[in-house]
Amino acid sequence: MKMTRNVIGLALVFSLLSATAFASSHETLFEGIKNDPNYSTLATALEVAGLASALDNSDSELTVFTPDNDVFNALPCGAVEALLDDTHLLKQILKLHVSPKTIKTGNGVMFQKQLNGGLVKLEFGPHGELQYVNDGSIIAKADLANGRSYRIAFILLTNELEGQLLEAAPDFCH
After folding, report:
1. What architecture does CATH give domain 5-13+23-103+141-172?
2. Full strand arrangement of the beta sheet holding 130-133
3. What is the pLDDT of the chain when averaged over all its residues?
4. Which tens digit of pLDDT belongs to each residue from 5-54?
5. Ramachandran region of residue 77, left (φ > 0), alpha (ψ -120 to 50) or beta?
6. Cα-atom radius of gyration of the chain, to the nearest Å?
7. How far is Cα 149 from Cα 67, in angstroms, rounded to an integer?
């Protein structure tokens, strides 16, 4: 039962239907996530993992790739519960969604080191705008007080983190 990022992305294409992103530049990244009901699962996950304060720090400059509730709801049975139960795994996955700097423009393809030490592949369009992260489309963007949020229709996972998640999830499906 191997789940791949491509399958996750295809299974979640319906989340493209509501492509609005939180957009108050006076809010911090965490406030933007927490105040938008489309991101309640992500907000809860950030709080459980103890990462909310890092995204609420107005002195930081970060980029966050934000999957919405539809993405979490489309995960296999038990995946969300397994993540909320395993805070170490949850923290590693969430840190893969955060870059330690604000990414607004670039050229071509680059690899960005994330807070968990993993790399994500970023692809920029002809005018320098970020279009893809790990071959998945950027749906929307929002500039907030301490960085930029990019809405994505998938969960960023390394092969190792994907294996750990799949291993933990069946414990919650009976």
Report:
1. Roll (2.30)
2. 98-99, 62-67, 147-152, 136-144, 130-133, 119-124, 109-113
3. 86
4. 433 433 333 333 334 455 557 899 999 999 999 999 999 999 999 999 99
5. beta
6. 15
7. 10
